[in-house]
Structures are given as C-alpha cells and as structure tokens.
Amino acid sequence: MEKEPRFEWKQCLVVRSDIKMSCGKSCAQVAHAAVIAYERADAAKRKKWLQEGQKKVVLKVSSERALLELKTLAEYAGIPTGLVQDAGLTEIPPGTVTALGLGPAKSEDLDRITSDLPLF
Asked: Which pLDDT tens digit goes with each residue over 37-64?
C-alpha cells in the first residue's frame, strides 16, 4: 500500500464570507492572495513548497476584522502574508479587503493560527 504524501509546507488562503461575491470573484481574490503571499516568501521557502506540490488550503472568516487579526498573527510568527483589496471594477466597492494569503510556510506554523477556521 502506498503511503499518503506528507506535506511539510503549504499555503493557506483565507476569504471573507461576510461580503457578497460570486464564486468566480471569490476564486480570483484567492488567486491574488496566493500570488502576493508567494512573492513575499523567501526563495528557500518557495522552493521547498514548489518541490512538494504546492499544497493550498482555502479557508474562510466571517469579517474584515478577523482577517486583519489573522494577518497580524501570521506576521508576528514570521509567515509571509498577502492582503487583497479589490479594485472595485466589478462586484464590490473599491478598497474592499477580500482575502489573505499566508505562506508558503511550514504546515505546523500555519496550523497554529488557522486550525480553528472552517474550509471555504
């Protein structure tokens, strides 16, 4: 029997559930968050994450405040973050904070601050 892959590195992508966005809009915001956080990670972390297959987990929070608190916790832990503010060209007002990318970082470090969040 084959062993399940063990991912030591991952990226957590967190989207707000309290604002009305279509599925496509939410997906785009999560993608923006992933790219921004990835670009802020150091080369060694990016390389390890890429080699493992780029695990991503998409989670949700119920407010802007919860998203910003999560960002602060991650930054304090040394985890790269990418906060997304929408341009306001389609569905929501300009400047609306929609999503947050965390990592790539060690899975255990991300779990310390995201383990209580529900999946999106």
From this structure: 999 999 999 999 999 999 999 999 999 9
Residue 98 C-alpha from the chain's centroid: 11
**Spatial distance between the Cα atoms of 78 and 82, rounded to a whole number of angstroms:** 13
| Domains parsed from the chain with CATH numbers | 9-114 (3.40.1490.10)
Q: What's the pLDDT score for residue 5?
A: 72
Q: The tokens 């965390």 sit on which residue?
A: 102
Q: How far apart are CA 39 and CA 71, in angstroms?
A: 16
Q: Is the dihedral of CA 74, 80, 82, 83 positive or negative?
A: positive
100: amino acid identity, one letter: L
